[in-house]
Amino acid sequence: MRRDRPDFIRYYNKEHKIRLEDSPWRRPKGIDNKIRMKRKGYPPMVDVGYRGPRVARGLHPSGFMEVIVHNPRELRNVDPSRQAIRIASTVGVRKRIEIIREAVRRGIKVLNLDNKTRKAIREVT
User: Rg of the chain's alpha carbons, rounded to an integer?
Assistant: First the structure.
């Protein structure tokens, strides 16, 4: 659903010997900066034309809308055909297992299943 867009990398600054490829995008502001001038042969600059389609904005890459869940009761408001859940980071393992069991029973996709939770579920069942 999403269009392909380039990886917008921050321009490599050789003067300060800092590796900037992995750092977040910042708009180039130098008067002679070739990326700012959109010169051929240089990485692309963030531009409004790279914006994704309206229907895909704000969605998880799987195509579902994310809903953050803190307890099993909150699963009542989730529509399994359009929404998937992400269990909040503040939820402990015991309640996390309850939420996952309820989500599986209702047919809801869980986006953040980690190995720790999978191991705990195996031990309980």
Answer: 21
**111 and 61 part of one domain:** yes
User: Closest by alpha carbon to 66, among 82, 85, 80?
Assistant: 85
* Closest alpha carbon to 120 in 87, 80, 78: 87
**What secondary structure letter does DSSP report for 22?**
T
Residue 32 corresponds to which tokens in the numbers above? 């002679």
CA 97 from centre of chain: 23
Give the burial class of 92: count Cβ atoms within 10 A of its Cβ; 0-12 exposed, 13-18 middle, 19 or more buried: exposed
- Residue 68 falls inside a structural domain: yes
What token pair was written down for 76?
């009542």
Residues 63 and 27 in one domain: no
Positions in the chain whose pLDDT score sits under 70? 1-3, 12-23, 124-125
Structural domain boundaries enclosing 80: 55-124
Same domain (yes/no): 19, 65 = no
pTM above 0.90, yes or no: no
How many separate domains does the chain show?
2
